[in-house]
Amino acid sequence: MTTYRDRDEAGRTLAERLTALIGEPDVIVLGLVRGGVPVARVVAERLGAPLDVLVVRKLGIPWAPEVAFGALGPGGVRVLNDAVASRLGPDEVAEVVHREQAELERRERLYRAGRPPLDLTGRIAVVVDDGLATGATARAAVQVARHLGARRVVVAVPVGAQEAYELLAAEADQVVCAQRPPDFMAVSAYFEDFHEVGDSEVTEALTATA
């Protein structure tokens, strides 16, 4: 098991596994907000591809937020897992959707900062996060990317749980996961520096690669 010094080092490790995409004209690297953005910045620089953010809000059931019944994405994208959502009443669904929609819109306003809405039509979307625990957010991101028109969705993470990797591999076109420890712990256990990424760090990364 390798411990990454920080998200930059994790990004360099991932980029070396994605070199086949260098020179592909339709590639766009999407950092999952917020922890995935510093990793994605390094990947985008190495691939010579544009960087953007994908704001996805997982819709978690109230008594077990890690269990997703759906997800929200930009442009009004809403994905529901009917098998799970059917266990909730309409009011419970509406309350969670309302709360997460408000946060999604806040982040979209902040991070897009006047840039056009995200359009992935015909693109190869490389969705980058800093790790894969349950995989729920990444799986939601894959569905959102497809709704936004991506023709191919690649998910890239520096470390992940084997079970989450397998679930994701069934939905994404390709999953690049640099490490899958057999006794996976929290994502933070595989980083020396795993500080909480703030809004300012996200906007700085986007500005630096604009």
Detail the topology: elements first, then pairings.
Layout: H1 7-16, E1 27-32, H2 36-47, E2 51-54, E3 57-61, E4 64-72, E5 78-80, H3 82-85, H4 90-112, E6 124-128, H5 136-147, E7 152-157, H6 162-169, E8 174-177, H7 199-208
Parallel strand pairs: 1-2, 1-6, 6-7, 7-8
Antiparallel strand pairs: 3-4, 4-5
Query: Which architecture of the largest domain would the CATH scheme give at its second level?
Result: 3-Layer(aba) Sandwich
Sheet with the most strands, sense and barrel status = 5 strands, parallel
Low-confidence runs: none
Query: SS-based structural class?
Result: alpha/beta
* Percent in helix: 25-40%
Count the strands? 8
Number of helices: 7
Tell me the fraction of residues in β-strands, as a range. 15-25%
